[in-house]
Amino acid sequence: MDLPFSVRWKLARQNVLAALRVNGNRRVAVAQDGEGAVVHVDGRRIFVPSPLRWKLYRKGWSARLDRLAREYGVGRHAALGPESVVIDIGANAGEFAHVAVAAGARIYCCEPDPIVRACLARNVDGLPGVSLHDVALWKENAEIDFGLAPERADSSVFVDGDRRISVQGQTLDAFLEAHEIPRVDLIKCDAEGAEPEVLDGLDARAADVAVIALDTGAERRGERTHDPCAERLTAKGFEVVEEKIGTRWMTFGLRR
Q1: H or E segment at 192?
Q2: Which residues fall within 8 angstroms of residue 24, CB to CB, at 6 or more apart?
Q3: Does domain 63-254 have CATH number 3.30.200.20?
Q4: Residue-wise pLDDT tens digits, 20-58
Q5: Which of 69, 75, 161, 166 is nearest to 113 (CA)?
Q6: Given Cys at both, which of 38, 61, 106, 149 links 33, Cβ 3.0 to 4.6 Å?
């Protein structure tokens, strides 16, 4: 694979650290795979839209899932079990589906970027209780202009650039009704800056949601979305908790 020298050097350094068993580092390899790449770690293949995502797996597959669970409040704000239902908005390559399935939960993975969704489909193939949905959760049911940046995991309405497609936007209310979902234990949302609009689409069914975990980092043209999300969550009857877990800023809506 024709990786930049800096990436090849970092991979080589990573594998030296893994051989020396330094700080839990694992051996990682990356290969081209169609429009994306495949990462090899811990005897597992993970399909990703960009080879640069190899860095997420430096400590191994299990460490990656443990980090996602912490970031999105699993076991701290959301207790998942065999009867649980999860909506994953911005499912990306599908790692969080593995977190949900390990707990026995059913998960609906929503990902409108076609390149990323292809990776998602391969990574969750055969997992029980997982369904994939080509939809962008939004403030209304309408076609929306969507920008593609899969190499940075930044695809969204707000990303700048010439690569744009039309995708189906759907409100959370409509999504829950269309799939006959009576209640939701956790909405995990990484909408790359569109979190306020996602919440605008949750109205009539807000009382049926126990926990909402929103990545409210500076992804809306460099601005965080905590304040508008907190305002909307409070109006819908949620208790708001803001946390920084590692480098990720999170806003939680909790139904007490």
Answers
A1: none
A2: 59, 60, 63
A3: no
A4: 999 999 999 999 898 899 999 999 999 999 999 999 999
A5: 166
A6: 38
